[in-house]
Automatic annotation (TrEMBL):
<dbReference type="InterPro" id="IPR048816">
    <property type="entry name" value="Peptidase_M17_N_1"/>
</dbReference>
<dbReference type="InterPro" id="IPR011356">
    <property type="entry name" value="Leucine_aapep/pepB"/>
</dbReference>
<dbReference type="Pfam" id="PF00883">
    <property type="entry name" value="Peptidase_M17"/>
</dbReference>
<dbReference type="InterPro" id="IPR000819">
    <property type="entry name" value="Peptidase_M17_C"/>
</dbReference>
<dbReference type="GO" id="GO:0005737">
    <property type="term" value="C:cytoplasm"/>
</dbReference>
<keyword id="KW-0378">Hydrolase</keyword>
<keyword id="KW-0464">Manganese</keyword>
<keyword id="KW-0645">Protease</keyword>
<feature type="domain" description="Cytosol aminopeptidase">
    <location>
        <begin position="305"/>
        <end position="312"/>
    </location>
</feature>
<dbReference type="GO" id="GO:0030145">
    <property type="term" value="F:manganese ion binding"/>
</dbReference>
<dbReference type="InterPro" id="IPR043472">
    <property type="entry name" value="Macro_dom-like"/>
</dbReference>
<dbReference type="Pfam" id="PF21337">
    <property type="entry name" value="Peptidase_M17_N_1"/>
</dbReference>
<dbReference type="GO" id="GO:0006508">
    <property type="term" value="P:proteolysis"/>
</dbReference>
<comment type="similarity">
    <text>Belongs to the peptidase M17 family.</text>
</comment>
<keyword id="KW-0031">Aminopeptidase</keyword>
<protein>
    <submittedName>
        <fullName>Leucyl aminopeptidase</fullName>
        <ecNumber>3.4.11.1</ecNumber>
    </submittedName>
</protein>
<dbReference type="GO" id="GO:0070006">
    <property type="term" value="F:metalloaminopeptidase activity"/>
</dbReference>
Length: 459
């Protein structure tokens, strides 16, 4: 994983080029105060401080940077600069780095597992806010972890590799890990087993659990959907629909990254991380449309669509999470195409019945510029999950309200007295933006972490 620490260094007065941030509204006043040479240079290059543009100008015998931004403070204000500037050391002119640091770091993120990165040297930003530095570096590293995992091809990232990621996390933070597989999985977590039973032995299904923290502290559970590749099963996807299904473990990547942030910050919680890891493959052993599946909770599920497998494995994992009686459960999942149709790739729907939790998450999302949009757990649609032969179906006919009915399915496996939120994340950026390249990406991760910090850091 990329090391971001060298890119954000304490400011001890060392030599550095200055960066002046300008909005388009403030450009005219700034230009009027500049010497003739600078005004001429700006006009020659048609620089008007539009967002994500910059100008190199002479300053005290050196070169300084003038950058156009939409607003002077925000996670992505410096992202384009970090991509475009030559290597060297920089400091903001008359301002603290603050929230801008994240974009500076992530603007230099590169996924280099399969090809070499660019030859540009590091662009180092100096900061006087040393206390905030470590936190920003951790946030950048967590985001990069999600991106790296989601960008990795499914041939290199199956259930065993996800398990190895959790093992590495456990070693780093002295946590306990437990993995359930084989006959025990089939008996105790029948839906996880059913979805993954068609895969080869090397890619066999499993439930990966991590426990960390003082058992006397408030218990929280973080659950992530870990479908390492999704063919759709016997309801097989077309090739175009299968193309990006390496990202179907994006929920697990988010859960891993959030757990890492919680443990690194040593929040006073008893953390339970759960990742049901499977490959939804096609073979003679595939589970079938029309099969009635047992569940850990004791309910029966008529499988009406083998491509609605994520909610099945999450159902068993949520049941297990509830058995520890946590006061809060968060789950992340690349669950439905309906969520993307409704809200697009950048805006994850948030589902929760808990008003306080909804308010905390929405406030944190706004504060972190990491948006979510609350969607209804509409009780009136619960009847869509009715089955003629079992307690419920996994995917109603017709496709109406697909993101809502998927969330309602999950709700049936969560204890009624437990605060729970479900985030249906895309985990993929279809087109690049400064600091956010095309490919795997984290959504609602910073919002969820800020919410947890707000709830627990003061305890």
């Amino acid at each position: 994983m990329m090391d971001f620490a060298p890119l954000l260094q304490p400011d001890r007065g060392q030599p550095a080029r200055t960066i002046t941030l300008l909005t388009a509204e403030g450009f005219a006043d700034w230009l009027a105060r500049q010497p003739v040479a600078t005004r001429t240079l700006a006009m020659a290059q048609r620089f008007a401080a539009k967002p994500d543009t910059h100008l190199l100008v002479p300053h005290d015998g050196e070169v300084a940077v003038v950058a156009g931004v939409a607003k002077a403070t925000g996670p992505w204000a410096l992202a384009k600069l970090a991509e475009a500037l030559p290597e060297g050391q920089y400091r903001l002119d008359g301002a603290e780095v603050g929230a801008n640091a994240l974009g500076w770091l992530l603007g230099q993120y590169r996924f280099t597992r399969y090809r070499k990165g660019d030859d540009n040297g590091p662009r180092v930003l100096l900061t006087r806010d040393v206390a905030h530095r470590d936190e920003v570096i951790r946030l950048a590293a967590a985001t990069a972890q999600v991106r790296d995992l989601v960008n990795t091809g499914a041939g290199d990232l199956g259930p065993a590799e996800l398990e190895a990621e959790v093992e590495a996390l456990a070693r780093t933070h002295h946590a306990q890990i437990m993995v359930t597989s084989g006959e025990t999985l089939a008996r105790d977590y029948p839906m996880i087993h059913a979805v993954g039973q068609a895969a080869t032995r090397e890619r066999a299904p499993r439930l990966i659990e991590l426990h960390w923290g003082d058992p006397a502290h408030p218990r929280i559970a973080i659950v992530g959907k870990g479908v390492c590749f999704d063919t759709g099963g016997l309801d097989i996807k077309p090739s175009a629909g299968m193309r990006l299904m390496k990202k179907d473990m994006g929920g697990a990547a988010h859960a891993l990254a959030l757990a890492s942030l919680v443990m690194a910050a040593r929040l006073p919680v008893r953390l339970h991380l759960l990742i049901p890891a499977v490959e939804n493959a096609v073979s003679a052993a595939s589970f079938r449309p029309g099969d009635v599946l047992k569940t850990r909770k004791g309910l029966t599920v008529e499988n009406t669509n083998t491509d609605a497998e994520g909610r099945l494995i999450l159902g068993d994992a949520l049941t297990r999470a509830g058995e520890e009686k946590p006061e809060l459960i968060l789950d992340f999942a690349t669950l439905t195409g309906a969520a993307r149709v409704a809200l697009g790739p950048d805006l994850p729907p948030l589902f929760t019945d808990d008003e306080a939790l909804a308010a905390d998450l929405l406030t944190a999302a706004a504060g972190e510029d990491d948006p979510v949009w609350r969607m209804p757990l509409w009780d009136g649609y619960d009847d869509m999950l009715k089955s003629d032969i079992a307690d419920m179906v996994n995917a109603p006919d017709g496709g109406f309200a697909g993101a809502i009915t998927a969330a309602l399915f999950l709700r049936r496996f969560v204890p009624k007295d437990t605060a729970w939120a479900h985030l249906d994340v895309f985990a993929w950026r279809p087109s690049g933006k400064p600091g956010r390249p095309k490919g795997g990406d984290a959504y609602a991760l910073r919002a969820a972490y800020a919410m947890l910090k707000g709830r627990y850091s003061g305890r």
